[in-house]
Design goal:
Order of helices and strands: HHHHHHEEHHHHHHH
Structural class: mainly alpha
Strand order of the largest sheet: 1-2
Strand content: under 5%
Largest sheet: 2 strands, antiparallel
Number of helices: 13
Amino acid sequence: MSTNLEFAAIQRALSAVEAYLHESNGADALLARREAGLADPGDAAAVDAAAAAVLNAQHDDGSWGGGLLDTAEALLELHELWEGENRGSGRIERGLDWLRTRRGVPGRYGETCDPRRHELSLCHHFLGGFFSPAPPDPPPEALRLSCGAPVAGDAAARLVASCVALQAKLRWGRYGRDVELHLEGLRRIVDLWDQREGLFTVPAFVAAVAALADAPDQQSRDAAARGIATLVGAQRADGTWPDVDLFQVMELLERAARAGGSSPALDAALRRGAVLLAVSLQEDGTWGQHAGTRRTLIGWRALRYAVAIQEKMST
């Protein structure tokens, strides 16, 4: 497909997604219209209603469903809906406090040790601050992230859930020694891409980079930049990545670019991914699968960014 045809396909897909979002009152549509400066008169009340629905599902102990991933993703959703403003009357603090109870307890990633893990500093002798999604037995089932991406495998599920919990703490501005230790471990993971076999999966690597990208310290941000460069280099010519869901990677890359980390290589990777999003879009303006996930919002953001960088190149 030529460059002009690719750009036309991305533009058509963006128009189709925006038509869907204009008619929807789901959280993804509310967030997209707010970002685009096209909020409807009733959208503010609808955002409050969406946040209230999330809060209504919180348990008395502060968790959502007693699960690490569910609790972390609920806190992240509230942060986005409220634009970082804590309006939960203590509910956010209770959720974050519950996350802290899962730190360092049995069942966390890196709990076991063997010669290879010890040599690479990926065992309990070196890793600290990680959160546990469950006791060691039974292991957690395969996870599905809010973006709709599946995470298979026991160790990967434990690592990804811990990374998302760390993101919830970081987004809500909660730092401390446990956070520093967790970030230190993730920085090690980022630099072990070529040795990842048997240690962590690609979805887990993406989750680790995403958490580092939310960190306030330069050392972690530099590691996130290295991880993003690794992912950009691993992209296939058709816009996909091996062994990982497209939307999980595109969410990370688009967020990084929007936060000021754009580069010609990153922009090119986002454009290739956007072409794939465009050709896989369904007639209703969504990507169809996994209702209730953030796929439409992620896709819209990626397509919109791709159009913006193309228009900038053309001026």
